[in-house]
Amino acid sequence: MRIAYICADPGVPVFGAKGASVHIQEVVRALRRAGHVVTVYAVRRGNLVPADLTDLPVHITRVNADDAAAREDAQAEASRLLAQQALTDGADLVYERYSLFSSALAQLAAAGIPGVLEVNSPLIDEQRQHRELVNEEGAVTALRAQVRAARTTVCVSEPVRRWVHGHVDAPRAVTIPNGVNPDRIRPFPEDPDGVVVAFVGTLKPWHGVADLLRAASLAKESWTLRIIGDGPERDALHAQAEELGLDVDFRGALAPQEIPAALAGSAVGVAPYPDLGGEDEQYFSPLKVLEYLAAGLPVVASAVGQLPRLLDGIGMLVPPSNPAALAAALDALAVAPQLRARRGELGRRRAEKHHSWDAVVAQILTLTEAQHA
């Protein structure tokens, strides 16, 4: 099939360092591995282009605006232009990553092209709470149009699916968590000089890195932290580490293709998500944890969201926002190399067998075809 992949979110570059950029690239790879011809239509390109995607056709319509209201109008117009370009180029299926104010999928559905809408988070709520949302009614109207037009609406978690249902009747909405590319991320030997605990992610409050630093300060065993990522909390976290007397290996933002090498030598992967105030606030489908599993790392994570099920029998779960419990779990793994090796092996097997992007995308396309039948 000819597949038009659309992302009209100005916060998500196709070739960026964010988890969302990784998500786009991996879905595109899986579609291409399945034999489909993919063209991407987006509002931001980014410059971290991996070698295997240099031949990917990417059409960019930029969003340029000076204030929030103008930006929202520009996003809606950009989505219209992206859809028009996809229609001109020709496509058998549209796969759109949900973004505020976009009606591209609905526009293409009206022209007879079926679509998959992928919803990764409650964007309207996020925009209202963390940024600025002027035309909420317009955002809700666009969401309803997209969901009603989509042959399948894919939600990455049950809280996200419930959020969609809270705005529109969505009988074709399903929950399919994120995946991982076990060929891109593979196990590496541990650093022989010491136990390295790795964190990968954007440095924002809801990733819990401040709790991780507090846990490191409470450690009774010998292990060090490697933090891979950047974000608005960077300066505060550097200052906190200095205040706590910690020697932390801050790696900064890296291109997705650099993550495997950055994880090399690590002994444990950590996901210290904080308590955000209820189950529906833990709506993520954690790419970082899947990458840890693919890398053959044992995982210590907060017992929130999808993590208890994902790590059942292979990970160590701790209460969220509890640095003491986090420190104790990391201490326990730091002194148990055989346990680390066993859990890392089990995690790698689970990633390969149950969580590959190829399997995720195949499931999405199978469901979409079934809806047509």
Could you outline the blueprint of secondary structure elements for this entry?
Blueprint: E1 2-7, H1 19-33, E2 37-42, E3 58-60, H2 68-89, E4 93-97, H3 104-110, E5 115-119, H4 123-130, H5 136-149, E6 152-155, H6 158-167, E7 173-175, E8 196-200, H7 209-218, E9 224-228, H8 234-243, E10 249-252, H9 259-263, E11 268-271, H10 287-294, E12 299-302, H11 307-310, E13 316-318, H12 323-334, H13 337-354, H14 357-372
Parallel strand pairs: 1-2, 1-4, 2-3, 4-5, 5-6, 6-7, 8-9, 8-11, 9-10, 11-12, 12-13
What series of H and E elements makes up the topology? EHEEHEHEHHEHEEHEHEHEHEHEHHH
Q: How many H/I helical runs?
A: 14
Taken as a percent bin, the fraction of beta residues is 15-25%
The main sheet comes to:
7 strands, parallel
CATH class of the largest domain: Alpha Beta
Structure summary, number of beta strands = 13
Strand order of the largest sheet: 3-2-1-4-5-6-7
Mean pLDDT: 95
Please give the alpha-carbon distance between the first and last residues: 17 Å
Structure class: alpha/beta
